[in-house]
Amino acid sequence: MSKKKKKQALFRSYDLRGNSQESESPALVWGWQKVPHETTAAWGARAIATPGGLDLLPDRQSLSWRSEEERSRLVGLLNGGALEAIQETYAFLRQTGGLRDDQGEDVVLYDGPDLKAMGSTQGSCGYFYVAAWLKEAS
């Protein structure tokens, strides 16, 4: 008697250059690459790091999601204030020395009840890699 593995829903990933793919994990084309595999939707970007904030280029962002409902929820949270909070935290860390372009530490940019965001310069001296994802329902 063989045991059947339960098939897990695939993630759809899309970047704003128009590329799409399916994968078993929340693979982001752009952004911070340590997104937890338990999430159901994630967004990432490779931004230009400036002292006053992050310049988010449209063609350097990507999304990954299991269902349209989860994708919509993620985008709603980002547009509903989380992205602004991410920008504010980034600017604060830059101004206070908690973040330097030549170092690659991971930093928490946002940690709300439903969404978490982290990022790093990865020592790139010009880019900032950021990702936000839905937290697991508790």
Summarize the structure.
The chain has 138 residues and is an alpha+beta fold. The chain has 1 helix and 8 strands.
Descriptive tags:
138 residues; single chain; 21% helix; alpha+beta
Written account of the structure:
This protein has 138 residues and is α+β, with helices and mostly antiparallel strands. The protein has a domain at 40-133: Beta-Lactamase (2-Layer Sandwich). The protein is 21% helix and 33% strand. It contains one helix and eight strands. It has one helix at 68-96; strands at residues 11-15, 20-23, 41-50, 53-55, 61-65, 107-111, 115-120, 127-134. Strand 6 (107-111) and strand 7 form a beta hairpin.
Q: Low-confidence parts, pLDDT < 50 over ≥5 residues?
A: 1-7
The average pLDDT score comes to 86
Task: Provide the CATH superfamily of the domain at 40-133.
Answer: PAS domain
Main β-sheet description: 8 strands, antiparallel
Helix content: 10-25%
Q: How do the helices and strands follow one another from N- to C-terminus?
A: EEEEEHEEE
Question: Based on helices, strands and strand pairing, what is the structural class?
Answer: alpha+beta
DSSP summary, beta strand count: 8
Compute the CA-based radius of gyration: 16 Å
Distance between the termini: 35 Å
CATH class term of the domain at 40-133: Alpha Beta
Beta-strand content estimate: 25-35%
Number of DSSP helices?
1
The CATH topology of the domain at 40-133 turns out to be Beta-Lactamase
**Overall morphology:** globular
Which CATH-level-2 architecture of the domain at 40-133?
A: 2-Layer Sandwich
